[in-house]
Amino acid sequence: MEPPHSGLLWARLADPKLREQIKAATVVIGADARGTGKFTVFFGLATLARHAKAGKDLKALIVTVAVDFATDDVEVLYAFCMTPKGSCCYNRAEAINPRFN
User: Fold this and answer.
1) Tens digit of pLDDT for each residue in 27-36?
2) What distances in angstroms separate CA 88 from CA 34, 35, 40, 61, 83, one per listed residue?
3) DSSP class of 28
4) CA–CA separation, 1 vs 98, rounded Å?
5) Are strands 27-32 and 62-67 parallel, antiparallel or unpaired?
6) Residue environment code for 67-79, b if the CB has 16+ CB neighbours within 10 A, otherwise e
7) Partners of 96 in beta bridges
8) In sequence order, what DSSP letters do the residues of 29-74 get, joined into one string?
9) CA dist 37 → 1, 32, 61 (Å)
10) Over the chain, what is the mean pLDDT?
């Protein structure tokens, strides 16, 4: 099995503004860069669930990052969530948009 090809996310994350947005975000969503409409939550799933359960509006900073799921973009965004935030909820069954699989 070949390792995934390098994506463009690593280069885009050289921009300190994007890194700061991810660091400050309450929720980080990875949206398919290929325009399929597929997405998954990388950080903030517990916050989303808590607000949904309470029936309250979510007032939060939500950052959506274009991710090419056929490349190493997934691992790159995972690392950029883990480093400043200490956790990442990527690949939990409840984080994945059902249309994704």
Assistant:
1) 999 999 998 8
2) 22, 23, 11, 16, 9
3) E
4) 26
5) parallel
6) bbbebbbbebbbe
7) 40
8) EEEETTSS--EEEEE-HHHHHHHHHHT------EEEEEE-TTBTHH
9) 27, 6, 21
10) 84
Closest CA to 7 of 76, 90, 89: 76
Predicted local distance difference test score (pLDDT) of residue 4: 62
Q: How many CB atoms lie within 10 A of CB 86?
A: 8
Q: Which of 46, 86, 39 is nearest to 63 (CA)?
A: 39
**Residue tagged 């965004």 (tokens):** 77
> What was the pLDDT predicted at 68?
93
CA dihedral 31, 60, 42, 20 (to 10 degrees): 90
82 contacts 88 by C-beta, under 8 angstroms: yes
Distance, in Å, from the CA atom of 66 to the CA atom of 46, rounded to the nearest integer, reads 22
38 contacts 97 by C-beta, under 8 angstroms: yes
